[in-house]
Amino acid sequence: SVATDDRLGISLSSSISIANYGDSSGTTKVFMSAADLTTNAQTLTIAASVTLEVGSGRTLTIATSGTITNNGTLTIAGSGTITNNGTLTNDGTLTIASSGTLTNDGTLTNNASKTLTNGGTISNSGTITKTEAFTGGAGLVSFASVAAYDASVAAGLTLGTSLSSSRSSANYGHSNLTTK
Question: What value does the mean pLDDT take over residues 122-128?
Fold first, then answer.
């Protein structure tokens, strides 16, 4: 079992790294299934050989001055939720299941050669910085405003005032609304 000082608890009082508690060839899996977790003003680091799964019905909250750095695998399973008010950096694999939600009111970064698979919902009113594409054809990315969308679009990918090639415009927002 994990020593008392290494337990995550429900609220971080100091920065912590979830390390691989197995041998170096294995993977440690941590399931958030019984309680929610808040980072407070701390940093939570998920090591390269570690999986942190936010279970169905559970919420992982990154506080305004909190940080999560994912070097391993971070999964939102079932109806789980990550609420990011601080900084979430993906340097590994981040997966959002079909009923999962990532609410970004802070800064979400998906670094080069890393994977963010969205099968659920990313609701954004913060900043999305990406150097690698998001994947997942079934997921929804919704923006709180046109300004939030514009701030998150990489240079050269905006529609602009004239089109130099064929482009398609998806419905950015509620599925019952029409994009105009």
Answer: 86
